[in-house]
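PROTEIN FOLDING TASK:
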Amino acid sequence: LLALRDPATRSIKTNTGTAGALQDFNSTNLDYSAFGFSDAAQLFSYFCVPNQAALDTLVAWARGTDVYDEDSDGNITENRPWILGDILHSQPLVVNYGALGSLTKTNPDLRLVVGTNAGFVHMFGNDNGQEDWAFFPKELAPVLRQRAINPLSSEHVYGVDNTAVVYTKDVGRDGTISASDGDKAYVYLTLGRGGRAIYALDISNPDSPTFLWMIDNTSTGFGELGQTWSRPAVTTIPGYKDNAGKFKPVLVFAAGYDTNKDASGVGTADSMGRGLFVVDAVTGALVWSVTPAADSATNMQEAGLLHSVPSPVTVLDSNGDAITDRVYFGDTGGNLWRVDMPGPTLPDSSQDGFHIVQMADLNGGTDLTDRRFFNAPDVVRTSYRGNAFDAIAIGSGDRNNPNATDNQDQFYMLRDERVSPYATEFDRSADCDSDPDTIDDLRCNLPLTVDDLYDVTPNTIQDGVDAAERSAAVSALVAARGWRMDLGTGEKSLAKSLTINGKLYFTTFSPEVDNTNVCVPTPGTGLLYIVRLTDATSVEVVTIGELIPEITPPVFPPPPPPDIECPDCGKIILLLPLGKTLPTGVQLPVPYGSYWYREEY
């Protein structure tokens, strides 16, 4: 549809106006002053073109005209044969506007937002697939010439290479997002491999986006920001309120990826991406961060943060007050971290009030055991043998090098027995003594290592030769701080896990180890494991294709109509890649779970 459309009819915007205001994507607005340059020569250099005429031609190409005669037919005024850039890591995001205009709740206004590595973000209408508008961040200008030249190269060119995140505010609680009613819809765009920036657009009117803000590593307080792989979580935190005392929404995201970790061999310490940021969801202002930088009014120093954090973070509300008071994340050094936000106020310049603790160090420091985390942890509130704990489930694997076969990765379930926020600072020398039986602060026993976790790989609890061996295995698990499972040669966990009704679902990818036909490469094998959360028993493994599988989304189909045979209706199923489904057999009780509404801000 896009290739057939007249480029002149496309609504393409870029952030060249005052304070980033959106303007039409054309040569007039793409002038040197919009980029902060002193003259046109700097502009041409930035776009990798020699003069204004070449810039005009490049812009026409970007809009969709075949000015370079890609099809070699001599016609340079027709449409390019293909316009949409490749979509690698940006999963399409569905935005539901409800009964907007002439549409209804049963036939709602649905839009799709997706980024491409040509540097554009597109919104498409679900009703006809046509592009409503596109946005090109001006900071990605060098991508255009690289894409237009399209050289033969092993180095991929990246643009907007991550999945967007949407946040909506439905003032009237009528299920429809209407700008005329004061409703809001904001979309947040991270670049993945495309750069060190995050953008926010107001898409309350789906046909007319406006610019909210942009931050990058040159913004005050964000020097630590690496490549923005971490999709933000939209939430509220203690102490951050408006003048009326109402909690204001924030984005919580990890500090990003450092390409230092692209190097082969055991990973070394990074120079960026080491930590966590909290920003105002509406203004982009820095609210709080934890990085290796010195303490300040908005940053808490943690010198132990040595490795970049490309993954999304997991936020948790410990007491059910709808305010996030805990955050978990892993880093590319194989460490797992916990941040506590007990409130009720934000930390001051001395950074009293919020806390961070290293939960685990699971990297063995060799080529084989150089374990890295690229996924958010799955946090589950549960108990085992009468003891309450928060299960932290996460798997290791180098997503940057999925075809490596010299790794011994693992999947973990750690028992975090501190089920409420830590309210005090921690001083190991003052708060811990030499007798582990008299230690009151659980942080004295952290960080956990691989040796603190019971090895469930042999599945002895379930498959032991006799009752005595199985009982001894259970006792060993109870005494441990969780469990670990060895993955196969080259096998990696590259997606967040999912827990349903006490069962843990996690996916892995194994590259093809012995491919004799080098002319026809085989991608590998994606597997889905299903085990009990508490002890990893009842193992089931499902092959789901030759691909790197993401988390499997759960779906709850409605109950069957009367007199209709439908064994899986009304039960949770998992959507697997390539159109496959997996029934879980889990039946939610009537009225099929709880429904609630929470005013976002």
